Sequence to fold (232 residues):
Amino acid sequence: MHFRSSVPLATWFAIVVRVLALCLALGPALLSPRSLALSSPVRRDWVQIVARYRDEVSRNPSSVDAHFRLAVAYAHEGKLLDGWEHLKQVDHLLGGERRRAPAARAFMNEAYAALARDPSDVFALYRLAFAAYFAGRKDLAMGSLRRAAALEPDNPWTMGYLGFLHGERDEVDRAIAWWERGVRVDPKNAVLHYLLGLAYTRKGDVKRAAMHFALAYRDRTLYEYVKGQRRL
Fold:
């Protein structure tokens, strides 16, 4: 299980996409009854946030801010492939690596201003976390996501991202702790069960790894995708 990324732009977000892109991209009609979405009801405010920035991107496809905000909103809802596509668009619009850091700092400043107005603004905490990550300030990204997890203890995706941040540091036990919290919140989350299977495999805990792989593979879309990747 390789937690560390050797490609600057291949963040934990990209790693998830590489492993699970197909199953997360497929529409509801192709997913098994054990959906990869949150088990808890989707909050109306997040539906509105996604709709708002999706419309804004449609109206102004060259808006870096709109693409960034939509990517972050998708990440919050666990729509990883959609979010990654908009992050790539941000990078394209910025014109490459030299302009990433200044843009990330601008996003951070905007998020700080939003949090000064409302410290419980989870969307602003997510924007701060993403921007901080791209600015290389991973401790700040982690702290922001921890605050988001405290404010929304029913969102397993926040716990999933926190696990990835620890994983990048080779802190496997801490990554496992966050992913275990995530599956306690959402026992049907196949993505987190799969990641736990990989993590326990690395630790040599075959019994726990097998249990989590079995739970993950109840989602046939995930199972078929992973099987296909192993044939490549």
Notes: Residues 18 and 81 are 9 Å apart (CA to CA). Confidence is low (pLDDT under 50) at residues 1-42. The chain is about 70% helix and 0% strand. The two ends are 17 Å apart (CA to CA).
